[in-house]
Specification:
The structure is a single chain. By secondary structure, this protein is an alpha/beta fold. The chain is built from eight helices and ten strands. It has one domain: Rossmann fold, CATH 3.40.50.300. Helix content is 32%, strand content 26%. The strands form two sheets. A six-stranded mixed beta sheet has the order 6-7-8-3-9-10, sandwiched between helices. Helix 6 links the parallel strand 7 and strand 8. Helix 3 runs parallel beside helix 5. The model has no long low-confidence stretch (mean pLDDT 91). Belongs to the ABC transporter superfamily.
């Protein structure tokens, strides 16, 4: 589904990622781990096309996406929930969700049940402005907006950052539900080891701009955590 090969990316003159290669297969939840500042968000932005690839390539469902614009990637079936949510605070919840239809591949003009079923709290808030919601509610809105277009690949960057435990539990269940459906793959950046071990199928650890370790959940030992993740 997603194949990143020997990727190099960064900001301005600064190279953040070097020789990054990873894969996300259909129906998988692949977790991207690493200390703060090692390039996890840079990788997500590069996969989405928000940062240019300097070297290497990004392929999605066999197609070369390396030079494609973010909108074309979205319409190809890649959904993105950025770190910090980036909802539109002056628009209502309903209007924010409607924007997700811009990436729809079937020309839909009405919100699919998907947005309501996975986040049943949102319909009662349709008339409220996004900026009036709590941080956790905004995260649910950003997640639901990404699901409106029915993506085949979902990029989740720190979906549990700074939100209350009850909504973290809700997001965990949504990820499990998506995984159970088997239609959408997920590339997940998350700091909580407990969370990623609970939902993840495969793990990559970034350190010093490259992939330092990869493996399945049972291989993510205390030694690996201490070497690459402990501050």
């Amino acid at each position: 589904m997603l194949a990143v090969q020997q990727l190099e990316s960064g900001y301005g003159e600064s190279v953040i990622l070097r020789d990054i290669s990873l894969r996300v297969r259909a129906g998988q939840v692949v977790c991207l781990l690493g200390r703060n500042g090692v390039g996890k968000t840079t990788l997500m932005k590069t996969v989405m096309g928000l940062l240019k690839v300097r070297k290497g390539e990004v392929r999605y469902n066999g197609a070369d996406m390396t030079r494609k614009a973010p909108g074309l990637r979205a319409r190809a079936g890649i959904g993105y929930v950025p770190q910090g949510r980036e909802i539109f605070p002056q628009l209502t919840v309903y209007e924010n969700l409607l924007l997700g239809l811009e990436a729809s591949r079937d020309g839909a003009v009405q919100l699919p049940e998907e947005a309501h079923r996975r986040f049943p709290v949102l319909p009662a808030m349709f008339g409220r402005r996004g900026g009036d919601l709590s941080g956790g509610q905004q995260q649910q809105l950003a997640f639901a907006r990404a699901l409106v277009s029915k993506p085949e690949l979902l990029l989740l960057d720190e979906p549990c950052e700074g939100i209350q435990p009850s909504i973290v539990d809700d997001i965990r269940e949504v990820i499990r539900s998506i995984k159970g459906d088997g239609r959408t793959a997920i590339l997940l950046v998350e700091q909580s080891l407990e969370f990623v071990k609970d939902v993840g199928d495969y793990f990559y650890v970034i350190d010093k701009g490259g992939i330092a370790w990869e493996g399945e959940p049972e291989a993510l030992t205390e030694e690996v955590v201490r070497q690459y993740l402990t501050v």
